[in-house]
Amino acid sequence: MALRIKLFFLNLRDLIVSAGPLLILAVGLLVAAYWWLDPQPPHTVRLATGPEGSAYAGFGARYARALARDGIRVELVATEGSLDNLTLLRTGQVDVAFVRGGTSSLSRPRPMPAATASAAEADAPDPDAGLVSLGALFYDPLWIFYREHSIVAAAGGPAPRAARPGRKPAAPPGTPPPEPAFLPQLAGLRVSVDQDGSGVPQLMARLLQANGLDASALTLSHLPPTQATQALLADDIDVAVLTSAPQSAVVRELLRAPDIRPLSLAQADAYARRFAFMRAVTLPRGVADLAEDIPPHDVTLLAASTSLLAREQTHPALRQLFAQAAQSIHSRAGWLNEAREFPNTRTSELPVSAEGDRAINGKPPFWQRYLPFWASNVIERMWLVIGGLIVLILPLSRVVPPLYTFRVRRRVFRWYARLRDIEARAETGKASREALLRELDDLDRVANGIAVPLAHAGEVYALRNNIHATRKRLLAAASGPISPPA
Questions:
Q1: Angle of the 354-361 helix axis to the 316-330 helix axis, nearest 10
Q2: Residue of 344 and 392 predicted with greater confidence
Q3: Which pLDDT band, with edges at 50, 70 and 90, does 368 fall under?
Q4: Domain span at residue 430?
Q5: What is the rounded average pLDDT of the residues 443-467?
Q6: 225 and 356 part of one domain
Q7: 420, 305: one domain
Q8: Of 364, 382, 401, which residue constitutes the final position of a domain?
Q9: So what's the pLDDT on residue 88?
Q10: I want to staple 49 with a disulfide (CB 3.0 to 4.6 A). Which of 56, 209, 345, 445 is the partner?
Q11: Same domain, yes or no, for 246 and 184?
């Protein structure tokens, strides 16, 4: 048993020494690649959401729960809205953010005169450089809620203007005014257009300008969605304008409130043609509550697609996790979209990152279904390095078996030098035969204790046979130097 243990450790030592340089090279290259590629993401990521009670805030909480399962803590950053989110993303204060389509164009200054525009545009850096999209997530409609008794509109016309050729005659006295369908019908009313950071004031200014109206035609205030809702219910304002997905609590509350109606824009398609980032969408009758028939008729809204944007410096593994979470959070049918319509890469205004495109349009690698996140992420980020190492190591590994064989045989062959020395001294007569025989006996005991694998046992026996042959020649010689073996 002791011999077997000794033999095992000797063979293990030879194997380690033989393959050690190759293993050190492989491990060194893997460590260097791991340090260079940095496959493991940070454990904390900052996500810009929106005001309290908004759909953005609700979705942010869902993303936080989704990424927590993989050990990532999502720090939710409350903001005034989409424009504020984009600003924080551009300045690197957050890593990921919900940004409504068109926000980038709304945040830029108005066009310059043609004479100076080309030179200025050539020198100005792109503020969105370094930002990528992880996919469009949902429609973010422009909600214009009004109190019915606050609207006094001219019958049959889009705006209370002077008589025009071909205009319909005014309705008879006592006829209730029709439901408003045009933005100019809001002139003179108390209108809250959300906070500056939401981008709604800038959007409303563009829409009013397209109608030939100035913002001064309205009595404007800038209340956040929750306060605007309470003010509208309390009759402190006449109109509340906000952007939010239908999932938000304020939208659901206003749809159910008595005397509060969403404005259905008759010219929604025309707005969508003039503003490329907008689309005309329909809120179906009864979608909020079939039993109560809320809303009581189809409502035509203007909407933009909200995308999940990230910085290029955000770790690719984090972008991958967010894109995968978007698949489960936003793929169901909603009030304004069909199932599997979102997330998508068709309506993203910025370039879609490889992680977002693969999560939305491709199939995840098979190992992600069986391995934990950290392991699958290492393979995902380092597969090229691992493949290159295999290609490099396979040819080099052919050196290991001969080197191992050399080390094992060296245990035996090293004693032939001593045997040859004994034979040389016997031939020249420089030592007595008794002394030489004692040396041969010592060498035979050493050879008997050499531990080698069974595959190399024949070499040990060959050494012992040669020792025995030398002993026989010494014993057979009567006197004088012995003759070398034939």
A1: 30
A2: 344
A3: confident
A4: 414-476
A5: 85
A6: yes
A7: no
A8: 364
A9: 95
A10: 56
A11: yes
List the one residue out of 178, 182, 194, 307 whose CA is nearest residue 251: 194
Give the pairing of strands 219-221 and 190-192.
Answer: parallel
CA geometry: angle at 473 spanning 469 and 477, to 5°?
170
* CA proximity to 144, closest of 237, 242, 31: 242
pLDDT at 155 (0 to 100): 33
**Would you call 1 helix, strand, or coil by DSSP?**
coil
Question: What CATH number is attached to the domain comprising 292?
Answer: 3.40.190.10
Cα 173–chain centre separation: 63
383 assigned to some structural domain: no
Highest-scoring range by mean pLDDT, 326-340, 379-393, 426-440: 326-340
The CA–CA distances, whole Å, from 88 to 50, 52, 61, 245, 484 equal 12, 17, 19, 21, 93
Q: Indicate whether 317 and 432 sit together in one domain.
A: no
| Partners of 145 in the β-ladder | 240, 262
The strand ranges marked E within 51-178 are: 73-77, 96-100, 131-147
Q: Distances from the Cα of 240 to the Cαs of 142, 183, 191, 232, in angstroms?
A: 10, 13, 6, 7
Q: Assign 164 a pLDDT band (cuts: 50, 70, 90).
A: very low
Which of 177, 189, 179 lies closest to 213 in space, CA to CA? 189
Residues 305 and 453 in one domain: no
Return the structure tokens found at 416. Answer: 């032939």
304's CB contacts (< 8 A; 6+ apart) are: 100, 101, 102, 139, 140, 142, 243, 277, 278, 279
Alpha-carbon Rg of the chain, whole angstroms? 42
Task: Specify the pLDDT at position 53.
Answer: 80
pLDDT of residue 424: 87
Q: Please tell me the predicted confidence (pLDDT) of residue 447.
A: 86
Whether 422 is in a domain gets the answer yes
The residue among 336, 421, 475, 451 whose CA lies nearest residue 2 is 451
Q: What is the DSSP letter of 434?
A: H
Q: What is the pLDDT of residue 115?
A: 46
Structural domain count of the chain? 2
Average pLDDT, the chain: 83
Share of the chain above pLDDT 90, in %: 44
Same domain flag for 207 and 288 = yes
For the chain, how many residues are written? 486
Inside any domain, residue 406: no
8 Å CB contact between 255 and 288: yes
Whether residue 339 lies inside any domain: the answer is yes
Query: Residue 124's pLDDT band (boundaries 50, 70, 90)?
Result: low
**One domain, residues 358 and 442:** no
Indicate the residue among 364, 384, 403 that finishes a domain.
Answer: 364
Ranking 147-151, 157-161, 457-461 by mean pLDDT, the lowest is: 157-161
Top pLDDT among 341 and 478 is at 341
